[in-house]
């Protein structure tokens, strides 16, 4: 791999595309050579995102116009469902990090059930790595195509997986009450995401039917070696960025909440982006804003035999574009935090 | 009782005091004759709350200055802990609705444990009614002193109590994940409630230690006839008004989520302020803003044997001043919704 | 006019339509008999606005389905441009308050210039009253059709007109820097009004080209008897409701800022909805939220010969639906504040 | 100057202190060796700002405890009024960038008038440079002590000074209507800055009496060579970061708004942080969030002989800590944008 890698971003006109650009322009070994946005083809990036002006970025083009011979890495930030065929058609020398949901479910039947149509690249699916970096680093290292995890699944799996792997919490009784900012819904114009509809309020949505449920259950299933079904209840709240997962678990046997904390501290020691807070300290989404960090908190519950976990991330960074770059770094053998060193923006 | 009742509001310079004024000035049978605010004594209400000008309100005075002979009803919106002695010292002809927590816990030991000092009016406590109106209406009707419920306990008990009374959900495994606006913290200047500290973020607080836990457990205990311990986890989020309680329950025997819904619909039929939404419909806090409504939603869970309940209120209205007026109406034999007919303010 | 008037609301599925409903259901002499929303015809109001459930409202229908024989008053909250023909076609016994901009510009040439097409009901226009109630009350009283003012024009004209009428400020050098909440843009789904695009920021829009400019200039021209051109610069900011107009004026001759204040106090004495604050007191939009009040503040400027005026309203109430009901009250000889007595909602 | 400079930050527990840390930890030639916070002495930075954990920062100490022998540059982020004596007492080898207002007014009489007491370091004042970098770069380069400009003065002077220097706009008739986020008020607990008091509203404050007025007038006076008095009207609005200055000016002679634009484009060509947008394009504060950029927009007014200017910055970056680092870079001969290359955070 040469000093600098050439990067294409497919779907640059959405929030995750813009976030990739924001982070990659400061990555010392990345060079953005192609940006695509079918409906905005021919326009400069700053016509769509004025905060990304003056950066010498290439003009946006259609996917068909990309010259893949000069591309080393492709970030695919296309809408869910449109991605399978695009990625299946890319030349083999291009490494891919896919931010859509298209390759996240490894069971074609689960995919068909949740997305309403058969998967269109089941062969490719077999070689994909699931890019929850701290958990699946070795697979990511070896993969050509990485399925970047969803935002909710990232904030929910990181606290849970080490505990399930070690048999410290029960897999049968997990409740995940998650709160998300609005950027997770993307930039498309919908009445339900208008300022006037979102500000000064909160409500659950996708109750017992959100497509991130099977992704979470798949990851927890891998950790336990058996099928897992969880309660996952997302809520929409008035903030742009941030996800907080409040996770209610039952302890196994004599395990204590302090044991959970110790296990997580040990598991994530040395990880650059996962910070297990002191026992009984509450994570706040504002303290990860704009950064690739995941904060984890562990509390004793008043109900005997129970404990409470919290996971906080910026949904656009660790929940999307930041983790995608982290995965690229792993795939290319770069230092894992390269280009991701910026601190959170607070206040 | 004469045509019009004369009302004193103790602690008029806080948010619940202001909300009492906002609502009572439109109550056809209420006349505000005294407003107290020890540190603002001598000032007009609009010096503290400019939105309440031009209403012909009495100037604020100290509690000692109130002439109780002309007062029929006293709303006490003083800080927790200062209230017991004040109320114990009021003349017997004055009916009292206390918005503080001072008379909410009926077990003196529980009070001492959670508030760090012995209760100072244990005799009076015995005659107090707990003013969760829809549940304890008959006791409220007969009481001279009503302990108005806390905001979280209101949003949490209304969905749960009918189900526990009928044995439809298990009392041992209740998880209440609650989200509150900032007005619940009052108007006192604290760094943690600054705009810059709250906007664009969410975090849990008082985890497993919030003083509304024993109040909720007391109410659920009354409903089941045995001690109940619940997980209650409050979160602070960027909105002024509103509480959403997301409640995760286990079903008893063959009970279904639809059964829960049917039981709640039946229990609250005819109630002017509790609206059980169609099965599978999510309440939103913005749709109760400024009103005395409590919206309840019921959902099937993907996890077998589980269901999800939601309760949404405006914490300053149904969670405080509105319910206080509702209780006054019950105590005085007025129509229960008198002065509380305004619709929610949206957007 | 009988005890109760029957009311039709055209365009009930927008924010101003919903606000009309919120206010009219508490108006003691109004009964809503028809609600129209072409694309939502057949649905109940609460399918569109869940906060307006349980009110016994009529199902929404198309305009063509309305039986006008039973309608006394029609509020027209249709999009700009579609209204002229609808109103021109209504039976003569129906009084009309039009909340669109279609009849606000009395000069057909000005209309054509700003709206890009010839006015389609120029005859009807001649008999319309411009419903800035405090200024044009007598004309409103006599009119069958009232053009309800725009939100910006209301907040801008009320402080200025008395001063221009009396020749206290110069008409040639008026600068209006206005800040609006997002509900002014309506409920249609636009990228620019998404929560993520609006929160935590501010920007000007429609600079020197906003269609409320000619409406303001028309009103100020009437007050001075000559043509007036003003600087009007609107800004979009992250709040749902509220407009603040900051108005920079030059004093005539020896006039002082205190003189302006005295003139406004005198002019608006006895007005139920216009409150001139003490000299040097700043209005805040949050202190009018949900109410029909207009707060006016007057300040001395450090620059000699200059003064500063502020006008604050809730754009959906005094800037739209509240003023519309105020105009209906005037047209029907009801007390002007009937149904509009509720206090602002703060916090 | 050695490869790395050692830096002390006085007043690290405020927002500008935290922002200095956020930026300096990524500055390749800066090393933070001392952080002071008198009331938090002995605590780690992350006890005060959890988002700044894991950075190996020194524990906070009192000012008296700092060992100045190892310090090259001191950023002083102390409250206004306390700073003069502290800076006067620092050893001469320490270069200073002062973020307070203490050295911004170069006329001792103006200082005494606006701050209510005599300046305590008038000798030192004479050698201070006013650090509006783009305008006073040469003086900054030569100075030991730089007075870092206020946030409002930065956003207001950058659009105006080139135009006044060239005589394109009149100095007698400048109106600056400015809108600020809440972080400008700092982190101290005040009722007026509570979330509940700020959200969903806007209001003017400090009208004709804000202490940034004389600082703006001083800068404009330097540009014109005569005394200037301006209208400066700040507003507080619900966002954490950002200032927008909307500036209304009169053109000199035949000058057009397009001429103003051309002059600004020319003046700021090559500046890394000042971006003059295309004529008639509106700056938005959200497009500078977290960055050191200043966006400038120029519009034609409908009123003949007038034009409109807009300046947008992040008040904590270009309006405080970012410009302070920019000034340090100039003082030390570093590339001016070193450590300030991050792009804005949007959404």
Automatic annotation (TrEMBL), chains A, B, C, D:
<keyword id="KW-0028">Amino-acid biosynthesis</keyword>
<keyword id="KW-0521">NADP</keyword>
<dbReference type="GO" id="GO:0006526">
    <property type="term" value="P:L-arginine biosynthetic process"/>
</dbReference>
<keyword id="KW-0963">Cytoplasm</keyword>
<comment type="similarity">
    <text>Belongs to the NAGSA dehydrogenase family. Type 1 subfamily.</text>
</comment>
<feature type="domain" description="Semialdehyde dehydrogenase NAD-binding">
    <location>
        <begin position="6"/>
        <end position="143"/>
    </location>
</feature>
<dbReference type="Pfam" id="PF22698">
    <property type="entry name" value="Semialdhyde_dhC_1"/>
</dbReference>
<dbReference type="InterPro" id="IPR000534">
    <property type="entry name" value="Semialdehyde_DH_NAD-bd"/>
</dbReference>
<keyword id="KW-0055">Arginine biosynthesis</keyword>
<feature type="active site">
    <location>
        <position position="151"/>
    </location>
</feature>
<dbReference type="Pfam" id="PF01118">
    <property type="entry name" value="Semialdhyde_dh"/>
</dbReference>
<comment type="pathway">
    <text>Amino-acid biosynthesis; L-arginine biosynthesis; N(2)-acetyl-L-ornithine from L-glutamate: step 3/4.</text>
</comment>
<dbReference type="InterPro" id="IPR036291">
    <property type="entry name" value="NAD(P)-bd_dom_sf"/>
</dbReference>
<dbReference type="GO" id="GO:0051287">
    <property type="term" value="F:NAD binding"/>
</dbReference>
<protein>
    <recommendedName>
        <fullName>N-acetyl-gamma-glutamyl-phosphate reductase</fullName>
        <ecNumber>1.2.1.38</ecNumber>
    </recommendedName>
</protein>
<keyword id="KW-0560">Oxidoreductase</keyword>
<dbReference type="InterPro" id="IPR000706">
    <property type="entry name" value="AGPR_type-1"/>
</dbReference>
<dbReference type="GO" id="GO:0005737">
    <property type="term" value="C:cytoplasm"/>
</dbReference>
<dbReference type="GO" id="GO:0070401">
    <property type="term" value="F:NADP+ binding"/>
</dbReference>
<dbReference type="InterPro" id="IPR058924">
    <property type="entry name" value="AGPR_dimerisation_dom"/>
</dbReference>
<dbReference type="InterPro" id="IPR050085">
    <property type="entry name" value="AGPR"/>
</dbReference>
<dbReference type="InterPro" id="IPR023013">
    <property type="entry name" value="AGPR_AS"/>
</dbReference>
<dbReference type="GO" id="GO:0003942">
    <property type="term" value="F:N-acetyl-gamma-glutamyl-phosphate reductase activity"/>
</dbReference>
<comment type="function">
    <text>Catalyzes the NADPH-dependent reduction of N-acetyl-5-glutamyl phosphate to yield N-acetyl-L-glutamate 5-semialdehyde.</text>
</comment>
